[in-house]
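User: Structure tokens for this complex, please. No commentary.
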Amino acid sequence: MKVAVLVTCINDTMFPDTGKAVFRLLRRLGVEADFPEAQTCCGQPMVNTGYLDEAVPVVRAFTDAFAGYDYIVTPSGSCAGSARHQHRMVARRAGEPRLAETGPKTYELSEFLVDVLGVTDVGAYFPHRVTYHPTCHSLRMLGVGDKPLQLLRNVRGLDLVELPAAEECCGFGGTFAVKNAETSTAMGADKARHVRDTDAEVLVAGDNSCLLHIGGLLSRERSGVRVLHLADVLASTEEDA
Amino acid sequence: MPAFPAAAREALADSQLRRNLAHATSTIRAKRAAVVGEVDEWEELRLAGAAIKDNTLRHLDEHLLTLEAALQSRGATVHWARDATEACDIVARIAHGHGVGEVVKVKSMATQEIGLNEALAAQGITAWETDLAELIVQLGDDLPSHILVPAIHRNRAEIREIFRREMAAVGRPAPADLTDDPAELAGAARLHLREKFLRARMAVSGANFAVADTGTLVVVESEGNGRMCLTLPEVLVSVVGIEKIVPTWSDLDVFLQLLPRSGTGERMNPYTSTWSGITPGDGPQEMHVVLLDNGRTRALADEVGRQALRCIRCSACLNVCPVYERTGGHAYGSVYPGPIGAILNPLLKGVGVDEQTDSLPYASSLCGACFEACPVRIDIPEVLVHLRSQVVDAHRGGAPKPEAVAMKSAAWVLSDERRLTLAERGMGAAGKALNRFGRAVLPGGRRAVRRLPWPASLWTGARDLPAPPPESFRAWWRRTGRR
Ligand code: SF4
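Assistant:
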């Protein structure tokens, strides 16, 4: 089984710890995964803003980097969704059917752990009060269901509290956050309020881009709530504590 | 009409409006979820609804001719209208032909789309809305902000004020001691409207469905006011979008299940009126049907976008949309607001024509709640992205906008690993410099930036931004020799 990790451009540049956590976690589970260095981005920023021509070379780089792997694992529901559903659109645009080939092999982290590896207990330890936000693309574009929750429930020491209106969008939406900044902020403020209502110490999600937005609001409100990617929590062990 | 971001800003500042909307949409969301949950084969029904509409659209020309023939054989007159002007002229001509100066109206999106009330007013004909919510909007000299609940942005106290202030000038006044009790408000509207129902000689309606093989028009409603208009006047004119066709009555069955559960959260809608031509001595004795294009054939020609023509105007997508919930319908600048409006308006009008229309496909975070709720499975996020690409393409050539420059350079960086590596080194350095703009520490210890100049201020106006880490993942991977 040849497994590659799609770290994603945002994790690569802004959240390198999440990338490291994915590798720690996979190795602990006995999976030796590669980081194909030619990888850059899934092309989603361009596709979602309507710049399909611009997305073509990015998706081409993606396809080249990941060709030859059986599985592509990524700590991002959004990028997995883009690879699976949007690369087809880019392939059509470019007239290059092969650009749609890596998409079906791309798995969001919790899907890979539960569906492919068949594990829900990854041997993690994280003694904190945690609430979980199911990001829209994991929830609706991929349909990961409660897989992230199954994983979190098996983390030792973790106190999982339910987030009110959990399935409502946080308002990030990529360039939506700046193109419609006020609406995005209004949505995020409601999400942040729900998070505070849980009294959780940590907000967990499967997409650092959503957490960048919610965390930015929580920090501006001086809420003291920390945001953390699911991978970071699952990679934690007794030794880290 | 301003572009969406500007119109939304105004709405967001209105806290009463936001409270009214949040209350109304969450109530109706819960109702819908409960009744949809009762139907085990809901997904099969959705698939059936989508399939019937798709098949019908594929042979739309034939079905339209079948409908026309069936209507004519039952004594109705069929008119074809290419656009809003033609449709309004037809209705006005019929009114003039009968010498009527006023018409009563059944709530209809198609007639709002073509601006019929305004067009008739310009010809000296007054159109009275008889749907309760439409009446509130009309009396308040306001615009509808929801497809099914046009006055969703108003609360009871506001409605009482409108009735007290405006009813007297256009007919029977509101009782002097009117309170904001819903039953009293409905009672005042009933008395006010009854006078108009009994006087009117002509009515104008739309249709929720048009059954091709029998030539039957269908209107579903909750109040029965529409039925009053459909049965009392002598002349009935129905303006029907050409996508409203279903081939047979058994097809109709599927939609009569999907629509009320998705729309008002009811198992069945209270009133379903159907009529097929003229019945001597009973009901209207003259019947006209105006088949309306007004951009529908343009939408039909769009391979990805044509699925929007499946829409049965149930409003489920509005009620679940987090953007609509906060901005309300007016921000969309059209009678079709919310997610469906964000795709339907550009599809009907074409992109690249005006800034307002071009802003609509971007009025979404692409969260997908609309697709999940839509009873005919319109993949609204897919169409939004598709239309965004049309907007971008329409502006290619000529001086590029800052956004286009940013996207081009981002794509240039992101299509090559070496360029990305260089950019990340630059960011690591910038991360240090960024600390000058304000030091904050995120919970967990990471440094963050509080204020940045434009355009980054669009982000930091409301949110802190973690400073870029000194080392990217890729650099770490190489440094530690993991390759
Ligand atoms: S797009 Fe779907 S959910 Fe929205 S109004 Fe139309 S049918 Fe209803």
